[in-house]
């Protein structure tokens, strides 16, 4: 992998990640951009104890532009985009409309491919491996920023999720705090460690799923994917490396090599969940799923915070288990799972699809 860092016309950093070492990246951003001005502010809720980012400048961000005006495609002739070069493998750059900036953290965009009409599932294993390298490198770099305590790599796919740009891309957030979801995991981890005399909760969860088997979706030599026992979403898969590590930096070469095979297969299965009459069960009986749009999903890497963990007594970074959570908000063909009163008002999820049934469906749509 070759890494080339440059600056856009408004001063934001852009980094090319290339599969070949002799690739030259010297294109200049020719756009007449003013320096980026952001209004990001993090406010803490005194009752819930969590934090909210206030970012009014994001109201003016680009919203569903036509394909020929996509800001994530390479620049071509007089059509200038966020990427100055005429081609790229993987690109990461500072978000022009960040939710977090300056002392409040950092937000970056990750473009997985220059092909506007592709998706992550369309990548080759080599391309997916390069994205993994980019995620890992950015995790390392952002962890050194004084304003960042936790690094979150994720992808939103599909208009139903709220994606405003159709080009295959993800984001990386560098939070200035430990996120509420991670804090919940760390509290459970600490309580279990104390109650069991040092046993690791993540290890036990993975071991139980493997022993039960009914919710396992696929396994590799170095990775295991399963629908969790108490899944929140209709189709939700958690992907763990078999050897516990706290973050992407901890993955060994064998796990890195196998990851693209496993992850691409998971994504391709997600796109086949609702194909055919079985995809929607009784609600779509007699209907074919061939016309179903691509499955909307969120893919989220959970990594240990780099900030202090004193409030989680007895827990250190190595106790945390890196894992990826992949889920869709589509509950059946043509129908979405909305977060209504119980979920949005009280954070109590109600799942219409039994986790065992979801796992069975994801096994049924395997490539081989």
Description:
This protein has 368 residues and is α+β, with helices and mostly antiparallel strands. Helix content is 22%, strand content 21%. The chain has helices spanning 125-142, 180-196, 201-212, 253-270, 341-346, 355-364, and strands at 2-7, 13-18, 41-44, 51-54, 90-94, 106-111, 150-157, 169-175, 216-219, 223-226, 235-241, 297-302, 323-328, 330-332, 335-336. An 11-stranded antiparallel beta sheet has the order 1-2-5-6-8-7-12-13-11-10-9, with helices on both faces. The longest helix has 18 residues, at 125-142. The radius of gyration is 21 Å and the shape is globular. The two termini are 31 Å apart.
Salient structural properties:
single chain; alpha+beta; 6 helices; 21% strand; globular
For the largest beta-sheet, the strand count, sense and barrel status come to: 11 strands, antiparallel
Q: Which overall shape is indicated by the principal axes computed on the Cα atoms? A: globular
By DSSP (H or I, 4+ residues per run), the number of helices equals 6
Gap between N and C termini, in Å? Answer: 31 Å
What topology, given as strand order, has the largest sheet?
Answer: 1-2-5-6-8-7-12-13-11-10-9
| Number of strand segments | 15
Task: State Rg.
Answer: 21 Å
* Unreliably modeled segments: 280-289
Helix content: 10-25%
The proportion of strand residues reads 15-25%
Order of helices and strands: EEEEEEHEEHHEEEHEEEEHH
Query: Averaged pLDDT, please?
Result: 93
Given helix and strand content, the structural type is alpha+beta
């Amino acid at each position: 992998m070759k890494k080339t860092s440059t600056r856009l016309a408004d001063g934001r950093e852009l980094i090319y990640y290339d599969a070949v070492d002799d690739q030259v990246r010297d294109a200049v951003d020719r756009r007449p951009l003013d320096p980026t001005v952001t209004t990001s502010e993090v406010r803490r809720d005194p009752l819930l104890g969590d934090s909210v980012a206030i970012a009014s400048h994001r109201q003016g961000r680009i919203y569903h532009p036509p394909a020929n005006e996509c800001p994530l495609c390479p620049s071509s002739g007089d059509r200038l985009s966020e990427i100055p070069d005429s081609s790229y493998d993987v690109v990461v750059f500072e978000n022009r409309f960040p939710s977090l900036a300056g002392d409040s953290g950092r937000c970056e965009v990750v473009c997985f491919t220059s092909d506007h009409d592709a998706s992550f599932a369309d990548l080759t294993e080599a391309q997916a491996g390069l994205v993994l390298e980019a995620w890992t490198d950015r995790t390392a770099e952002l962890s050194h920023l004084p304003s960042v305590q936790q690094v979150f790599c994720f992808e939103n796919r599909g208009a139903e999720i709220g994606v405003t740009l159709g080009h295959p891309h993800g984001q990386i957030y560098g939070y200035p705090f430990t996120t509420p979801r991670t804090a919940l995991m760390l509290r459970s981890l600490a309580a279990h460690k104390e109650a069991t005399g040092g046993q690791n909760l993540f290890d036990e969860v993975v071991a139980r799923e493997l022993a039960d088997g009914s919710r396992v979706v696929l396994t590799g030599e170095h990775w295991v994917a399963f629908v969790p026992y108490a899944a929140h979403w209709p189709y939700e898969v958690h992907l763990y490396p078999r050897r516990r590590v706290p973050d992407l930096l901890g993955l060994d070469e064998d796990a890195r090599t196998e990851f693209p095979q496993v992850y691409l297969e998971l994504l391709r299965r997600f796109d086949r969940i609702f194909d055919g009459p079985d995809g929607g069960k009784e609600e779509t009986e007699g209907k074919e799923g061939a016309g179903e749009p691509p499955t909307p999903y969120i893919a989220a890497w959970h990594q240990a915070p780099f900030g202090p963990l004193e409030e989680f007594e007895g827990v250190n970074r190595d106790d945390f288990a890196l894992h990826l959570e992949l889920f869709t908000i589509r509950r059946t063909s043509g129908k979405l799972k909305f977060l209504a009163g119980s979920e949005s008002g009280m954070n109590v999820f109600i799942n219409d699809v039994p986790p065992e049934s979801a796992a069975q469906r994801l096994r049924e749509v395997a490539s081989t």
